[in-house]
């Protein structure tokens, strides 16, 4: 029997409808959703999965699938894929996939791990496709030999959950990417200081996340597109009061831990799983922690502001433009969505100091009555818990620091990533001009309208215009949807050298905005789209 290599596919494909270009030479930035048939929503998929219907042709969980067998199931009427060594029948999910059949077919009969991780790595695929599980992938491993013909050994063991060893692999390439950062530690009577030398000039303290549970310390450093982990069982006890300082220009990180007892430590501690490792962030497992709902405030008729307390021992400050994933169980299936944390208010006097301490975060969430996850969130009470992931994102604070003029194009809850930018530029800084064009259906949909207008009245460096697509008869402002003449007349400065344009909203809005900005001559390096 011939050996089969399961190919790894790029996702989305270069010509896919799920990619959008904002200009020649720019990496595609977002993906479109396709129109699903009635009765094919995510909630409908949850119900189908729990209905008892056989979604894997009577072969669920019992098969030991070879690569050769997997490759046979590559049609729209019979499609299997493998993710981290588990094989799923994805045929029944085709009509429920927001990205359409075409994108799922990219992984049919192939290894879909990279495809999945690049777009949905925070999704619990074991829960989402539990009823479609066929079995584990069995492969032939080859042992290299220094002379003579190659020999192979048929092994009956299954793949590990996090790696996919396949036959006929090409020769190993030299290691690439970032080297493991050097670290050190120091102590005095009161504290322990851990130093990590990231050598990244754009490193900021928000890119350091600290979790301490039962004497185990986990330090997560986000360095460019990589995640560096320190994971130790500490020799002694430390309090939950941490401080993180980053040396500007060198990326040297100092993490200060307060000792509970005034004793000298002989060592920092015992290494735990994953200690002193670095890998691409996209390849790391998404970690969640239970956060307690401290308060719920009404923002509009369908949107709430939630204050969530991180667990004791956790410090997580979210950088500008980054988001977290929120996960909850919906009828036994784990569902997750992305949300960008917002400040507690747009006014300086009402800022919650616990946000800067990394102890709480605020999320502004619109509750959709026909949604899958948000109805669960809408029923939360004070004292309930919600699972929140580490933060992630592609927006670097250095992009913000280099501009003096911010133009923000937001639609609906696409306003949320703009809130931090507005607060930083208008309240915290003194040399930036900010323009916000805010698109909504009705006036009642405008989030934080009173705060926005108060800020605009008090600060000449902040301008705002509202555009409504379904206004009432008495509305005297702008009407319609995003269009070229609106953007052209809105942007005040003609100096493009230090301008940044940020876009966020539903995918059709983002797609239209990027296309119009390109037509108006704004380059890729001047535009950032926040994507959900």
Features:
532 residues, alpha+beta, six-stranded antiparallel sheet, 12 helices, 17% helix, 32% strand, disordered N terminus
Please tally the β strands and state the result: 29
- Class per helix and strand makeup: alpha+beta
User: Gyration radius, to the nearest Å?
Assistant: 25 Å
The geometry reads as globular
Beta percentage is: 25-35%
Main beta-sheet annotation: 6 strands, antiparallel
Intertermini distance: 45 Å
Helix content: 10-25%
Estimate the mean pLDDT confidence. Answer: 84
Helix count, per DSSP?
Answer: 12
Structure description:
The structure is a single chain. The chain has 532 residues and is of the alpha+beta class. It contains 12 helices and 29 strands. The strands form 6 sheets. Strands 10, 11, 12, 15, 16 and 19 form a 6-stranded antiparallel sheet that branches. A 6-stranded antiparallel sheet has the order 21-20-23-17-18-22. Strands 27-26-25-24-28-29 form a 6-stranded parallel sheet, with helices on both faces. The longest helix has 13 residues, at 416-428. It is globular and about 65 Å long. The relative contact order is 0.10.
Task: Give a quick summary of the entry.
The protein is of the alpha+beta class. Helix content is 17%, strand content 32%.
């Amino acid at each position: 029997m011939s050996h089969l290599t399961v190919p790894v596919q790029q996702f989305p494909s270069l010509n896919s409808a799920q990619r959008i270009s904002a200009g020649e030479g720019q990496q595609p930035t977002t993906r479109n959703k396709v129109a699903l048939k009635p009765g094919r929503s995510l909630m409908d998929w949850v119900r189908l999965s729990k209905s008892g219907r056989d979604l894997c042709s009577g072969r669920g969980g019992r098969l030991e699938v070879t690569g050769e067998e997997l490759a046979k199931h590559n049609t729209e009427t019979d499609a299997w894929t493998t993710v981290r060594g588990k094989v799923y029948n994805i045929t029944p999910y085709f009509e429920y996939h927001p990205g359409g059949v075409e994108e799922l077919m990219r992984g049919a009969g192939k290894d879909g791990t990279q495809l999945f991780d690049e777009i949905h790595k925070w999704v619990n695929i074991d829960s989402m496709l539990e009823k479609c599980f066929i079995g584990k992938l069995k492969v032939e491993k080859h042992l290299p030999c220094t002379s003579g013909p190659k020999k192979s050994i048929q092994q009956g063991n299954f793949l590990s959950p996090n790696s996919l060893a396949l036959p006929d692999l090409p020769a190993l390439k030299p290691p690439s990417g970032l080297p493991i950062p050097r670290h050190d530690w120091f102590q005095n009577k009161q504290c322990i200081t851990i130093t990590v030398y990231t050598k990244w000039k754009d490193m900021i303290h928000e890119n350091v996340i600290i979790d301490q549970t039962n004497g185990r310390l986990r330090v997560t450093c986000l360095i460019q597109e990589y995640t560096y982990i320190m994971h130790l069982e500490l020799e002694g006890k430390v309090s939950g009061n941490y401080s993180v300082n980053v040396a500007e220009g060198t990326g040297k990180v100092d993490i200060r831990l307060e000792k509970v007892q005034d004793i000298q430590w002989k060592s920092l501690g015992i290494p735990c799983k994953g200690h002193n490792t670095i890998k691409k962030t996209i390849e790391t497992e998404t970690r969640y922690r239970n956060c307690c709902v401290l308060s719920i405030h009404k923002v509009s008729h369908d949107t709430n502001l939630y204050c969530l307390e991180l667990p004791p021992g956790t410090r997580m400050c979210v950088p500008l433009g980054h988001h977290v994933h929120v996960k909850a169980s919906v009828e036994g299936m784990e569902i997750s969505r992305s949300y960008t944390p917002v400040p507690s208010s747009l006014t300086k006097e009402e800022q919650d100091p616990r946000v800067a301490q990394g102890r709480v975060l605020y999320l502004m969430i619109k509750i959709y009555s026909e949604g899958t996850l948000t109805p669960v969130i809408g029923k939360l009470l004070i004292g309930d818990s919600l699972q929140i992931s580490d933060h992630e994102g592609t927006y670097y604070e250095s992009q913000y620091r280099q501009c003096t003029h911010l133009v923000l194009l937001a639609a609906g809850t696409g306003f949320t990533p703009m809130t931090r930018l507005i607060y930083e530029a208008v309240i915290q800084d003194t040399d930036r001009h900010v323009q916000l064009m805010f698109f909504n259906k009705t006036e009642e949909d405008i989030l934080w309208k009173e705060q926005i207008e108060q800020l605009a009245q008090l600060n000449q460096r902040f301008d705002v215009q509202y555009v409504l697509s379904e206004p009432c008869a008495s509305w005297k402002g702008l009407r319609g949807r995003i269009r070229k003449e609106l953007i052209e007349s809105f942007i005040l400065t003609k100096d493009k050298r230090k301008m940044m344009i940020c876009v966020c909203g539903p995918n059709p809005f983002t797609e239209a905005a990027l296309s119009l900005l390109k037509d108006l001559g704004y380059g890729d390096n001047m535009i950032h789209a926040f994507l959900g």
